[in-house]
Amino acid sequence: MVGVTDTISAPFGLLATAMITPFTSSGEVDHDTAWRLARHLSDQGTDTLVVTGTTGESPTLSDDEKVALYRTVVEAVKEKDTLVIAGTGTYDTRHSVEMTERAAETGVDGVLAVAPYYNKPSQAGLVAHFSAIADVGVPVMLYNIPGRTGSLIEVETLATMSSHPQVVAVKDAVLDLEFTSATIKRVPSLPVYSGQDTFTLPMLSVGAVGVVSVVAHLAGRVIKAMIKAAQSGDWPEARRLHYELMPLCEACFLETNPTPVKGAMNSFWEPVGDVRLPLVAASDDTLAAIEKALGALQGL
User: Fold this and answer.
1) How many whole angstroms separate alpha carbon 213 and alpha carbon 152?
2) What are the extents of the domains in the chain?
3) CATH 3.20.20.70 is held by the domain 15-232
4) Is 0.90 topped by the overall pTM?
5) Among residues 66, 78, 120, 143, which one is catalytic?
6) Is 171 a catalytic residue?
7) For a tag site, which of 1, 48, 144, 162 has the least CB within 10 Å?
């Protein structure tokens, strides 16, 4: 069993950022801003960029838009020590495999494969689905988020999938520390990444290796410092940073992700455009809460 002070491989580093997708004023993918954003996030401590996940508004992007975005982000960070993961999982196995193949051609370092949503396959179906994606030959991070998909990848299914040489990690957004603990105890060789910013430190305490973060758009260096403090055994410092980050983490999820963080980047970084329908722009109250939390963040 992996203990809280043990170290296992973190194939995508300590901090992965679920990157938003910038849009122009006319609603098209803004590749120039995406290139700058990828570089900015890398400079702020991001080890891996996760492109076209839900935070990147994948449900509203066409396949061609996604592939073009992969090329832009790979190009942006090719000279940096930053990896790129493409969100290629859907509720259609054939489509997921096709997108994984197309993503691989752009030079990404891995793919994110979410549990199929809406059709709620059995555990045997999940194994067959993920195996088909992994058989493409690109490293796979499984994504367990039953609150969005309605389908839980059970611990034994994770154990089964861990035997595939291309399944290298899992993003755990189950929001249940008992489940996370059971996963790490049963499958200690499968690196677990927190899939929820507020759960990062608690999950690190039971053996997770890092986070796939939304809030890293605004506080990447502080999140990275918190993870490093925990992994070095400096729990008082890790807790200090955790509690400093909490108001910002909470504010960034006052509305459906990525609405708040995209609005915040428009306000506090540079224009990244609106969210696409059916999402709508963040409220003034949400943006005010984020601004207040940022102002109170002392960080390092």
Assistant:
1) 20
2) 15-232
3) yes
4) yes
5) 143
6) yes
7) 1
